[in-house]
Amino acid sequence: MKVLRLPKERLDLFASVLQQFGEVHAPVEQNGKYAFRALSRWSDARLDYPRTILPPKKYFVPPKDTLFQYKEGLGYVPADLAADRRIILFGLHSCDIYGLNILDQVFSGKYDDPYYQARRKNVAIIGVDCIPDEHCFCHSMRADFVDKGFDLFFQDLGDRYLVMVGTALGDDMVLATGSLFEPVTPEDLAEYKQRSSAKRKAFKLHVEIRDLPEIFELEYDSSLWKQVGDRCLSCGACSMVCPTCYCFDVADDVDLGARSGSRSRTWDSCLFSTHAMVAGGENFREGRASRVKFRYYHKQRGFVAEYGRPSCVGCGRCISACPVNIDISQVISQLRGIENATA
Amino acid sequence: MAKPTLGVFGLTGCAGDQLVILNCEDELLELTELVDIKDFLMASSGNDTSCQLDVALVDGAVLSQRDEDMLKRIRERSRLLVALGTCAVWGGVASLDRNQDRTRLLEDVYGEMGKKYDSLPARALHEVVNVDLSITGCPIEKDQLISAVASLLQGDPPLYPKYPVCTECRMREYNCLLIERGEICCGPLTVAGCQARCPGLNVPCVGCRGPADDANVESAMNMFGEKGIPREEIAAKLRTFAPAWGVNV
Q: What integer pLDDT is reported at residue B249 of this predicted model?
């Protein structure tokens, strides 16, 4: 991997060069929280943010995605995926890049999803490193470092960045700046290693995932699921904000007179009472507890069996978005019989 | 083939849901091409008040013997009866006092003559007659009304979300007023469909659309309690629009 350095005072210049590669989106502040938005000016970008409300999955699997339309006289009109604008997504944390790599396995693995894939091609990814807060446990989920899934990755070294070039597109961005980027020095590498080790020690939240699928298997009938189910509001917030929750519901909208309409898919959640409902009104997971349990089992056990790792990346969004403070790290600790896993 | 016949009726309420129909200005002409509006007092003075109807849209709650008789008559005339708006679906604001002594309430407001008034504790339509479809909201959402008509013309029931407002709020990436500001936001309990309009304008959800499917009121009450908000205050807020939350205080 090509590795370079960029003095921080040159970041603005780099950002201005980036515009020729597409519309630059980055985290911006929104009443004390953060969201990825198109930038009207580079100074709005906040690269020192803890986490955005929604993960970058919104760019690839939008909350509501029109798959095709139909119109009288024209028949079916497919979504014009090629017309999507090119976007540079600046400022993703490792956990979110890892989340996208997981979505790749789902949408570009056994079953190709053209909508997802078209957007993946149109959106460039530039990562930045981060400092964990009280809800972060990405190191436990092995998602605190990524070696793929980005075009460029910026590691903060104080007054400069160590920049990892992940793809040919990333390299093109570097080359387009002329001599803005410099070769790394031995001091940069020493600083990087020192910061990397310090970051590992900065995590306050720890979740042990070794043998977790087995623990889940053993605790299938645990009374804990009822306790969590009694608290869960089935509000779906945790699923919406999860970088790897990808369930969707497909429905047709018919216009008045049925001469036109559209088919779209909308984010769904296994916590909804209708998620496992089938024709005839039968429901495989009628109780809230069974739905909560399903979400945990799919993330931490089912996904491991299918793809070799949990689909959770430890971003902490579900913890900060839950109105009744259901905390995945505590649920796992309780399941393991450990009272306080944050020590 | 003859066009399906439609009637629009108002029981006791503000008639806001009927007004939403008239406010569908871009769709009204198309609507009149597709259906034969036979009886709609708010829109026309020339109505056929006795013909059979394929669909009746009924706004408002049942608050008097007159309302009850009118609703039963509409039911007899109609193949499909649609409850329109929170009052028709859940009972609405007028059901706030439905567990109190009616005679005393009437006397408090109207004095001695109140005793003679035709006034009953508010009931939702389904508490009086069979209802085939419910479109909730205070007022109803225009897009849900149009999709109902469009779907019914195809012989299908419309698909509405059953999940809570929180889901739509998160989809739109709004700030969470409940978690971030500790406000009494009824989003986790209230059925979606409004695209979280109020939270999007920094106003907490007041629950005007009534309960979401499987709303966990008990847990929400505990959650508000932990924030120091008295149980009665939450219950009063929820009861403003619907008595059916299962709130026991």
A: 44
